[in-house]
Design goal:
311 residues; 3 domains; Ubiquitin-like (UB roll); six-stranded mixed β-sheet; Rossmann fold; alpha/beta; 10 helices
Length: 311
Amino acid sequence: MPMSHRVFLQLARRRLAGKEGVARIREIRVLLAELPDYRNGPYADLRKWLQSEMVATRRRSSVVNRDSIAVRRQGVAQIALVGAPNAGKSSLLQALSDVQIKTGDYAFTTTHPVPAAIRAGGVLVQLVEIPGLLSGAHEDRGGGRALLGVPRDANAVVRCHDSPQPGSQLRSLREELRAAAIDLPAIVAATKADDARPGALAALRRETRDLETIAVSVLDDASLDALRDAIWRLTGLTRVFLVHEGATDPDPVALPPPVTVADVADAIHHELGARCRGARLWGGSARFPGQTVGRDHRLAEGDAVEIISEH
């Protein structure tokens, strides 16, 4: 016998609480599937209510998408730097790139998204700094709805946290991203690490054990290099180096996996992709250096290839 309609309504409200966007629509569909298929009475009313909630959720999502800020892409991937006000995002972006940004020891120094290209993994990656997000940003507090449109369209997110500050700031940021239905690959950059109190970084890593956490200071080049390496891993791309007349180009091609020889040839030029017969191969996916492989051979991270084409 089905549960009473009153119990079902309470259960539905609990399951929908805190969900928005795709996650809320998915949960509504599950609830509709669980409802008894009555055409009249309280269960029919529940079905109409859930269907109206789905329409309203889609309407809200449409408003969010229209109310976003577009940032022109540059490089092989776009990574959003997000965090609370004064989390050290501007100083970090300036230290990683050549862009000059107004910085200060006070909140809201940055008032609009700031893009900058950096080299990570030997390729150009675009970082976009988002102005500090307030609690309630997903409800448009502090213009948060438009600002959240930038990480929503990015490939990944760096969650910046001011190391000397309590972990509650990072938890609040996580909730804002979740409420805005932003679920992207992410790492945590623990900024101003040189000012962190003893034990603060260890506590932060325990709290963010599901994410890679990089302790970084703009005064420490080694920590900045470690962050660059983490940003490269965050892209999830595969690097392939090109060999021509025995010389290896230091600038790799970066493509989303899985990557074949034909994919690399096509990335160089579509005509070369069409004429590609295979490649000579060095690296992890080769059985021996200089192995000749076909166009459909799947390449590994860091492989080097010399494309063989039809003349």
